[in-house]
Amino acid sequence: MIDFDKLDKLIHEKGRLSIMTLLAARPDWKYQDLKAELNMSDGNLITHLRTLYKAGYVSMTKEVEKRPQTSYALTAAGRKAFEDYLAVLEQILKSGRG
Predict the structure, then answer these.
(1) pLDDT, tens digit, 9 for 90 and up, residues 19-35
(2) Domains held by the chain: number
């Protein structure tokens, strides 16, 4: 039997799942690149990033060259949480295929 409570509710929300998926695909993303890729408003994206940051799932790096830029990356805890989340999804898929 699948324990659906093992699905990380923090990651499961569509916007945060999208962010986690992109961050898992490459080492880091600049804020503007995430915004463009996900087609999210500033308010929506920053709210999701703050939630993931507070949970310890993403790190934030601020750079100041010609203009300030913020980059985000998965932390080790974030990568583990995402891998665990995917493992539960795989169990769900396997059981659904019967």
Answers:
(1) 999 999 999 999 999 99
(2) 1
